[in-house]
């Protein structure tokens, strides 16, 4: 009976995890993050490769997380991962804001056209400082 319960839990866990991951990846692609990257870098012919890389990254991230696989001298890769992760999350949030048309409406109403570069710089510095403070306070 115990083996049947474990098998059933494994099947349910894998099924629900697959459904949630598929929803997240669909959301990322639906927001247009991948196509926006391909458009800005003029590499639209490789868009399927980009989508595959996102899926493989999610799968490998889950495998490393679940099985506690450590990478030797992985501490050197943490800043690189943080940089790329921050870029991706920033692009993801900007794509979401673009879809919702929040910034264009706000900028037109408040007439902030001349200070947009300073606003973007302030958001980037604030996010970076907040991340540094968060990780510094964890130790």
Automatic annotation (TrEMBL):
Keywords: Membrane, Transmembrane, Transmembrane helix. Signal peptide: none annotated. This is Stage V sporulation protein AB. InterPro entries: SpoVAB (IPR020144). It comes from the Bacteria. It comes from Bariatricus massiliensis. Pfam families: SpoVAB. The chain crosses the membrane at residues 6-35, 47-68, 80-103, 115-137.
């Amino acid at each position: 009976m115990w083996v049947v319960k474990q098998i059933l839990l494994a099947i349910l866990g894998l099924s629900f995890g697959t459904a949630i991951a598929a929803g997240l990846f669909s959301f990322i692609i639906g927001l247009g993050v991948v196509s926006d990257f391909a458009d800005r870098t003029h590499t639209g012919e490789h868009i399927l490769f980009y989508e595959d890389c996102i899926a493989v990254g999610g799968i490998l991230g889950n495998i490393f997380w679940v099985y506690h696989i450590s990478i030797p001298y992985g501490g050197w890769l943490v800043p690189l991962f943080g940089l790329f992760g921050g870029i991706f999350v920033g692009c993801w949030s900007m794509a979401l804001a673009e879809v919702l048309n929040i910034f264009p409406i706000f900028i037109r109403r408040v007439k902030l056209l001349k200070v947009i570069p300073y606003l973007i710089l302030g958001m980037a510095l604030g996010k970076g400082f907040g991340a540094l403070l968060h990780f510094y306070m964890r130790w």
